[in-house]
# Entry
Amino acid sequence: RGRLLLARDRVGKKPLYYALTAGGVTFASEIAALLEDPDVPREPDLEAIHHYLTLQYVPAPLTAFRAIRKLPPAHRLVWEGGSITVEPYWRLRFTPKLRLSVPEATEALLAHLREAVRLRLVADVPLGAFLSGGIDSSTVVGLMSELTGDAPKTISIGFEEESYDELRYARMVAHRFGTDHHEIIVKPDAVQVLPALVRHYGEPFADSSAIPTYYVSRAARSVVTVALTGDGGDENFAGYDRYVATRLARLYAGLPGGIRRLGARMLVRAAQRLAPPVNGKSLGSRMARFFEAAGLEPEERYCRWVCHFTTEQKAALCTEEFIRAGSFRPTSELLFGEGRGRSGSDSVDDLLALDVETYLPDDLLVKVDVAAMANSLETRAPFLDHVLMEFVARLPSGMKLRGLTKKYLLRRALRGWMPPGILRRRKMGFGVPLEMWLRRELREFARRASRPSAVAAGAISIRPTSAGSLTST
# Structure
């Protein structure tokens, strides 16, 4: 019939790239494979670079190449007669809301979690799990232990820098569930893997946790063939600070202007004096970032909170040729386009819906897939079971974020089963002590990489004379 149908999984666990050519359509799971086709042009997509500088990943459907596109999660592509049609086949629905009491929702959640893990234990090869000591990976490990009756193999990584190291929490969980536990310490020389990672990603990608994710995948592959992960827990249960921030922003906006300004200054100053940094980020700087964006529209506010380079910073950093290349649409317009971030529920569910369709597939799952595939490891994420996701999405947002308590229902479900220290601990994220490394062991590496001659030879958008400011002390 001369008709081709391509489809990508619901949440983007696996990538799918395609390019229209004179001879038809070329598709692959890696950009590098498409570039082997001489009919696929190599011209860079400057708009994609513009959004990359904002987010530190290239959002779908864009890639760093104008001729190559990502097929978004939960979409199908039909090629016929030389043209293509791309359309969604599934979308996570947050309404109508389920009418369940907290005890009823807790019981149902545990049943869904057990089934999601059980389905992912089916294998004829050795299984294990990544274990960070966070709530999500600890939940998966606990259920693996319960369902198999064995000691699951768990793999954790740590750092010599104490403020970034989570091994004490991972050990707590490993001891609680009697796992066969393995650990690896990631040191500054780990950046030696960067050239290989660049080839695997095929386009700019700046999530620094790509480095430890690679090493935990390599360590896992030495003992198992399949590893379960905790990916998706934050996007299901409102685990990021920005979900709390969006709720606080509504309260802040209701205060008189004078009180807002005075209160913001006082709180930021107090936080700068009293609160120690967490993962290299001071509470004062985070609060200042919150107040700067709290009064903006939701779309712009979200981008201010997650952005790495603002419009003004990009103007100072990028070449005149790049700036003149086009009037790039705002990143917020791309992220919130086509109905994304519209849950039909409330502001918290709006952000959950947005992250499920953007940050999760374009950053987190890309990072895990590249690291795992580079080490011939298969990963499975129980929290991304679509039946579980559909159930959690339809719970009231107050069961996910209650007051300032993130993942409220999940924490409640784990009481009496998970070590209390795990339930009480502050979320750390998969941070890397990159700033410390760049100021110490990797100082010379950073200096060489940011030399004007090196930047001019490798960059299409960065002003060589400005690059040094990125690593200056």
